[in-house]
Amino acid sequence: MIFLFIWLVLIGYAAFLAPGEDLDPVFSNILSGQWDNIDPLVFAVFNSLGLFPLVFLTILLLHDRQRWPAWPFALLSLGIGAFSLLPYFAFGDRPAKNRSTVRTPRWLMQFLSSRFWLLVLMVMWASILLTLLQGFSLEAYRDAFFSSSLVSVMTVDWFVLWGLSVYAVNRYCPKAKAKGLAWIPILGPLLVMWVNKKKSS
């Protein structure tokens, strides 16, 4: 029940422990479109939280034959990240009785496993990294972490998603080559799928 424990800890952290001011400066800048006031590293982490769910959507839908359908949790992760994925891994990721086929329609599986889709995600990953070329400050990120509850929660969420992505690759692709690449945040699982494309199920 490690996933349940992490889920409860994550909820508790977001609700009661995350540091931050009453008026969240980063959230205010995002809403007002004043992105120049946001440190590039903060912005990169924020944007990557929109890309991580697409990676999970790809992995889970290509192997969606478990007890619970994966697609609702994968779609919800686009908005709430690991908060929606952890319950799935805790309770739904169990063998389903009398199910040997994947729920995902064949046309969607072909698209999600295509090199075109994987390349699109890789380009998105590269574009996020390019924002860091503007220069970033770890000190500025630290200050944002303690002054913005959004940055505090999204940072923890990012690390949980990173760990879950490594787990997902090993869970659903146990015989894949180059699984060590999965440790590269976001890009790693995509590279594993790229290298093992012929073995996609």
TrEMBL record:
* Entry keyword annotation includes Iron-sulfur: no
Can you tell which superkingdom this protein's organism belongs to? Answer: Bacteria
Signal peptide location: none
Q: Keywords, A to Z?
A: Membrane, Transmembrane, Transmembrane helix
Parts of the chain that traverse the membrane: 41-63, 70-91, 111-133, 145-168, 180-196
* Protein name per its UniProtKB record: DUF2834 domain-containing protein
Q: Which organism is it from?
A: Planococcus shenhongbingii
Q: What is the lineage of its organism?
A: Bacteria, Bacillati, Bacillota, Bacilli, Bacillales
